[in-house]
Every structure is written in C-alpha cells, then in structure tokens.
Design brief:
By secondary structure, the chain is mainly beta. It has 3 helices and 15 strands. It starts with a helix and ends with a strand.
Amino acid sequence: MRIRMYITAAVTAAAAWLALGGIAAASFPNFSDCPTGLPSGSACVDIQSNSGEFEIKGFHVPLDHSLEIRGAVREPEGTFVPPAGTNGFFAQPVNVPGGLLGIELPITLNLVLATAELAGPASSIEFRPGDQTIRLPLKVRLSNPLIESNCHIGSNSNPIWVHLIPGTTSPPPPNRSISGRPGRLEFVPPDTLFARGAIVVENSFSIPGAQECGGLGLINLVIDAKLKLPSAAGNNSMIINNEAALRIIP
C-alpha cells in the first residue's frame, strides 16, 4: 500500500528530529469524522492552513487559518474520500481588505467577505502524500449586503484550478518562479505521520470574472473592474503555510 510505504520511509527521515527534540504534541489533527470501511493501508488525512495569501494582480487577500481539507485517502487507487455529508473541503470566510465595491458606503455595507469553496465533487481533490502536493478546483463566494447570495468568482463549470506544490514553480510571465518547502516529517507511533510547516505555492493559474452578483450584472462589472478580472495565468498567486497529518487505517 502506497501510504504505508510513505510512513515506513518517513520513519528513517524523521528519526533524527525525534532523537533531538522528542515527538511533538499532536494538537491540530481532526480525525473524528474520518470515513470508515476503507481498505487496509488507506489513511485518514487532515490538512490545515496556518497562514497564507491569495493574490490577484497585486490585490492581496490573507488566508490565515481559513482552509482545511479533511477526509481520507483510499488505497490502492489514491483517491480522496470525504467525511459523510461533506465534500471534504472546509473554509472560513475572510475579510477582503478595503472591500470590493470601490464606492463610499457605511462600513457594514462596504465590508466584503470571501469564502473559498470546492468547485466540483470531492473526487476532484488530489492530495499526494509522497510529495505533499495538492490539486483542486476552487471558486470564491463573495458576501455583502448589496451582493446577491450566489455571487462567485469562478464556478463549477469554470473553476480556478490550483496545483499547490512545495517546490519551485514555472509560471508564465509576468510572474516569476516562487518556491515553497516540504513539511518537516514527524512519525508518531504507531500510525500517524505529520508534515509540519510546509509551504505550498502556485502562481500559474487564471481567474475568471465575477458572476451572479446582482444589480442586473452591474455589480459583476464593478467587482471585475476592482480586481481586474478576468485575470490571465501569470498574474495571480497562492501561498499557503500548512500542517498535514495522516493516520494509517489498519
């Protein structure tokens, strides 16, 4: 089983860390709703962001602790399986700095919250424990008293595809290469592997325009003008500092 092989291989790599500093306390993993009935060698998985940034042509949105992928990786095929009743992608709304409407309004009307959502089924999430990469389609819900409830940047049919890696990117111009870093491996007997302090990056994706935001399409135009959408590949980036944990299923 591939995940069992990842954990076995990681024991040796983590041994020096364990000898120097002991086994770190597992404070963040949430395996409480891990799917059941999976084949032996599959693993519960929990990935949580600690900090991060989403950038659209120089417009920055902090991500902080807002993102989580939780569920299981089913072996031998390596597919993602979400907790029952969910798609396995969990996100908290974040405040968009300065709002989005670009007009003078009371603060409660100008405040815009952005919430990342999975733009597809749970099976569209690809997590590769071996190299700590994550690939998935996203859309961003915008919330504001003046915006319709289904206002999004991206959609299921036209998502924002991100392929987050801990290595070095090769984006189209004008973006330049950026680099992440793999998480520090810690094996906690008998069955749990941590990758701590990983930085995964992506700056080769495009972003479509806003849709269904109300005002007979006028608010779509206002948001697109503010963020310069659609935004072609080479103008955007995502950087996430995360913690990941895998618990093997016997």
